[in-house]
């Protein structure tokens, strides 16, 4: 297995060396001019250059260096990667480069970038954990009142804007701008909150341009026994796996999850939600970069000794395969099973679509894995069975919110907003 991994990474690197020799000569003078250019290239200029140079090499790193030498300057930086289909665990992770991540994307291999978070879960592994007890469903009237406030129109408007960013690639200015826009939307919701609602917002900065965004309902009456956070998350970045400077609207992956939890957050704020436990909404940067954003946050919580009562993340909530019944699906691998069963009971109580348990296809995953690895209870809700109902448009220019035949459904996504509201209230309490 290990050999295979080296072979994969090496093979691409070798193919690449030949392409480099070819390409760099042909465009030497232009690259040189560019490196000294003052203004960064516009997306349109980058597209022109991609077209111009893509005949010279099929390697994404070489192409990047030709198209945008300044932007490609850190692609040779060493990164420690755990490639899910090649390594049995993080202990087998191997050194590669930032650029190798682009090659893995092209090969359809998913990975975790553990460079800065190698010790995730080690401190929590020795802590004494009490068996989690999930409370009986008991806030029906409050949950239903908040749910009645959810609208698909808000989700539509937010997603229209969010997908209008050329892409939301975590290493780019586009990814920083889309993150800042999201931050301002959350801030705007908080600014309109009833004066008595204790809320905070945080821009969680990273060693790359895109920040994660964290909003938090503080407990109304803080108690030393109720400090564990209830966390609801989604990832805000998008990526075009063919080449990262191409368009990536990321409407389903994971613009849908982003606006799903944003709408749940808005309705909770408008209804004056005041929990017993802290309740947090997380929008993660750089899921596509190897779960970078969520691992940074989980690692900080572990380092600071913060407890987490339960975490759920929503990755892809709108795609509805033709001639399939739309469902709320709960993933059963790399999750906390008792929490997942509890979420199923919440979905059965509050969502109007059927609920199903589903397994991930091998080599797939998302941000709940960061919390699971850190030793916290995590769950994962998504739009369907990944084996039979998977969205074929993700990671490309065609992942838009305007799909034919009703395949992109805001009604479907709204069912997940209901689950997010129920998770916040039933686990966070309401005083
Ligand atoms: C949501 O709740 C707020 C505050 O109660 C109210 O002003 C608004 O009209 C509600 N919106 C919907 C769609 O129910
Ligand atoms: C916290 O829990 C302990 C042990 O169950 C209990 O004795 C104490 O009264 C609780 N404190 C508060 C403030 O509820
Ligand atoms: C869905 O079902 C309809 C009616 O049976 C059929 O005409 C159509 O071809 C089906 N679509 C797909 C994608 O299977
Ligand atoms: C996007 O869809 C168009 C129209 O169906 C198709 O021609 C094109 O190949 C698709 N592009 C990608 C990247 O899948």
TrEMBL record:
EC number(s) stated in the UniProt entry for this protein: 3.4.-.-
Glycosyltransferase listed as a keyword: no
Signal peptide as annotated in the record: 1-19
Keyword vocabulary terms for this entry: Aminopeptidase, Hydrolase, Metal-binding, Protease, Signal, Zinc
Gene Ontology molecular-function annotations: aminopeptidase activity; metal ion binding; metalloexopeptidase activity
Pfam families: Peptidase_M28
UniProt cross-references to Gene3D superfamilies, sorted A to Z: Zn peptidases
Keyword Aminoacyl-tRNA synthetase: no
Domain Peptidase M28: residue ranges: 213-402
Enzyme class, first EC level, given as a word: hydrolase
One record GO biological process: proteolysis
Listed cofactors: Zn(2+)
InterPro entries: M28_fam, Peptidase_M28
Family: Belongs to the peptidase M28 family. M28E subfamily.
Descriptive protein name: Peptide hydrolase
Naturally occurring in which organism (per UniProt): Gloeophyllum trabeum (strain ATCC 11539 / FP-39264 / Madison 617)
